[in-house]
Amino acid sequence: MKTIEKSHYFDPRLEEEIKQELQQFHHEVALDGENHGRRGLPTVSEPDVKSYYHGHHISTQKMINTVGMATPKAALIAEVQEDEKQRDSKIQAIENKLHKVKQQLHDAGKKLANLKPAFSKTRLWLSWLAMCLPMLADAIISIPVWETWGFNFIEAAVISLIFAGALVTLAHYFERIVCFLGKTLWQRRIITILLLLLVVSAFYYMADARAEYRTSQLAAQGILVHFKPIPFALVTTIIFIIALTISKFAFPSRVQREQMEEYTRMKAEHQVLLDDEQKLEHEKADIIQKHEQLKQTNLSILLRAAALEEMIITHAHHGFTEWKRANTMHRPDRLRPNAFNDDQYPFAFNTNFSDIKRLFI
Q1: pTM of the model
Q2: Using a CB cutoff of 8 Å and minimum separation of 24, what contacts does 170-174 make?
Q3: Hey, where are the domains in the chain?
Q4: What is the tens place of the pLDDT at every residue in 73-102?
């Protein structure tokens, strides 16, 4: 549909031109009434004054025609009607989509209502902290051990952190590693024992180095104390067992992870449908709003033209009254013609905008 180029308001230049013509009209009406009165026309017995006032009526009718030609009434109405058809068509298409989305949203809502998150993110973060903090503390205490093996402080700190991270990872994936490597129950038991022996051996080796370091450190201060590695190894082993326990019982199981994935997926799907519904509602409201704006714009133009047309008719009626008054005042016989007793305007106007409100309701 091609949109008509127009302003949001009626052209003020046309209104100004009509006002100027009406001023001239009133001047001519008064002068003509006076001239006919001086000649005693119309006569007292004449039944009407149409023949005398017809020219003035034609003047106002021409003004009405000028307003009609300057305002494309049919095009403006047709534009609104065509836009209304397109609006209804677009809204119907959106309503069909909305119905489908609402049905999907209803189904997704029912499924989501039957699902609950298997675990919370807070629980997950707390579990990670419970695993990592003890390992981190043990790693910090072990930094001097790495220094005794020739590393500087920064290198020792980095290696300790990497070692602690490796232990946390091993504790977290311990069960999966065992299940992946072992196909039978006995294989898994043997692999579990071997991995624990390997870890404990590493702990004992580190504990022995730590015990020697502490013993030599105190000996340099003149304190003869001999530290044994077993307590250090036990502490690290207990921390590792705690990490294993947290990973086993605090972290979500495979079933819980699958449930959580299903819940997350359904929640995301439900949110997408909500967004789609909101988007369609906004599209629908936008289409309605644009049509109303077009309708109000065109209606404002036509109503202003209708008001100008009504103003011309009102001036025509006033002009007729002025003509009769000027005629009566300047008659030499001082008599009032019988035709002046009828106050009704003697002509009918061909209007263009009298039905505008009815058309736009």
Answers
A1: 0.62
A2: 170/199, 171/131, 171/240, 171/243, 171/244, 171/246, 171/247, 172/131, 172/243, 172/247, 172/251, 174/244, 174/247
A3: 12-105+273-360, 121-251
A4: 888 989 998 999 999 999 999 999 999 999
